[in-house]
Amino acid sequence: MGRAFVYLILGGGVASGYAALEFVKRGVLHGELCIISDEAVAPYERPALSKGFLLPEAPARLPSFHCCVGSNEERLDPKWYKEHGIELILGTRVKSADVKQKTLVTSAGETISYNILIVATGARALKLEDIGIRVSSAENVCYLRNLDDAEKLVTAMQMSNGGNAVVIGGGYIGMECAASLAINKLNVTMVFPGSHLMARLFTPQIASYYEEYYSSKGVKIIKGTSLTSFKFNSEGKVIAVNLRDGNTLPADMVVVGIGSRPNTSLFEGQLTLEKGGIKVNGHMQSSNISVYAVGDVAAFPVKEYGGVTRRLEHVDCARKAARHAVAAIMNPKKRSDFDYLPFFYSRVFTLSWQFYGNNEGDVVHFGDFLSSAFGAYWIHKGRLVGAFLEGGTKEENEAISKAARLKPAVEDLSELEKQGLGFALSVSRKMVHMPEKPVHACRATAGIIMAMAAFAYWYEKCGK
């Protein structure tokens, strides 16, 4: 017959760990919750894989970065799950799902049933084969999505030992891995087809700063071209990378960061898909009322983007969406729509940036681009909708977050540029000192004003 659970989480990434913690906080009973993951370890903080895990000295290793240390909560090691009566089914692949029957079938043939399913299958790294480049299983071509990938990358770095590393891609994975490789004293070359780094977010001026900084750390950047093929030695190991512009780069190892694809295959034809992911409502509930989706696999209505359905691939969104879904499941009478402020961040070398909101509209840069104390605002239809800051303090980062959330009116872009970070700090401090009025008090005030206006009208009309 197999096993049966009230709540089942499919996937072992960040979202799963934070969902489990929220279930426990809301009183899930022993034996009600199960997590199934194809990874052999309990859920962990994936950002550590491109940062602390790759350090040459005192690198991060499990159990130090199990969920939920990424948000300064308790660490959920395997013992924690056992103590709270949560079943962990690890190293297990699910080969089929039936949302009508509320069952999953594992590769071992076991049928597991549920009342409520949370899909947290995330996304997989886009492989070179997906874009028509055959590389097979070369031991020195690496991706970075899970713990196995990170361990393979570390092995490749150690075997390269000061050699040449080629990074394909100029986004998150490309930038963070290139920094880590350089710290490990490899000769790093980044290759990407775009005109500048992190093209989906950075403006050319912001990107220029990071490109110059990377160059100062010995990283070579080749823009406007792409990988076409590899050269292999007799052992099947990559020894060079051929580019579309005709150049050939020597390579002792290659790291590929060209994007990802949501893991939706189990639910295609069963759940509504949109933007490549599982479409959910503001409660993170899919087209089947018994199935929820969170993290990179979920496409949800983003209030900050006017309610447009989007997938936001970032750890912060995964953590908060997971908690929101569990709150909706455990307390359906007090459900509210997910009101998420898009947030992205990264740390490379000694740099650290944060972005909040929407990068739409006119851009106003501010600060000193020579001293890594700079930022930018995005202004759309007369209001600040997005904010970016490099090297901010805790107070400064909180200020740009509050400004992006509040969307204050901006009348003069040149004046905004002069105020710079001070504008966000001013908005933030006004919010702190703004008295909060109860709803009933606001309604009473409005009623008094309306009554006074009516009295004044009739007093004037009736000749006093």
TrEMBL record:
What EC number(s) does the entry state?
Answer: 1.6.5.4
EC primary class: oxidoreductase
Keyword Flavoprotein on entry: yes
Cofactor(s) needed for function: FAD
The record's listing under InterPro entries reads: FAD-oxidoreductase/Apoptosis (IPR050446), FAD/NAD-bd_sf (IPR036188), FAD/NAD-binding_dom (IPR023753), FAD/NAD-linked_Rdtase_dimer_sf (IPR016156), MDHAR3-like_C (IPR048618)
Write out the GO MF terms: monodehydroascorbate reductase (NADH) activity
Instruction: Domain (FAD/NAD(P)-binding): give its ranges.
Output: 7-321
Is this entry keyworded NAD? yes
A Gene Ontology term for the protein's cellular component: cytoplasm
Keyword set, alphabetical order: FAD, Flavoprotein, NAD, Oxidoreductase, Redox-active center
Q: Which Pfam families match?
A: MDHAR3-like_C, Pyr_redox_2
Report the residue ranges that make up the Monodehydroascorbate reductase 3-like C-terminal domain in this protein: 341-424
| Family, similarity comment | Belongs to the FAD-dependent oxidoreductase family.
Q: What is this protein's name? A: monodehydroascorbate reductase (NADH)
What organism is recorded for this protein? Answer: Lithospermum erythrorhizon
